[in-house]
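Kindly inspect this chain:
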Amino acid sequence: MTDLPPDLPRLRTLETWLALALADVRRAIAAVEQREAERQRGIEARPAPPDWLLEVGLNRGSPPVQVHVGGCWNAGKRSRGISRDEALRALADGVKACGACRPDTGLGYLEG
């Protein structure tokens, strides 16, 4: 056992300090639990990624650069979700298919 003071006043002081320290720990635990619950709710509420992405050029008026499968690691920040029909139309219009995720294969698009 630890060495505790022998007199009542110091034992009461120690008891008070331990109660305050325990309250601090419990508040910290509650804050971490709340952050974790909020993070989990955010994950559950996150919308599903789009099935197909269209990556656009640097300038506002520049043509699209590539078509990607939704969630492709190679899709740039200037990508937006598109429908299957829009992805097929983009490929038919000559927009390049991403070489990493191969959306043309997923879409069943045969060049020609």
User: Anything to note?
Assistant: The longest strand covers residues 64-69. Residues 52-107 form one domain. The chain has two domains: 1-46, 52-107. The two ends are 83 Å apart (CA to CA).
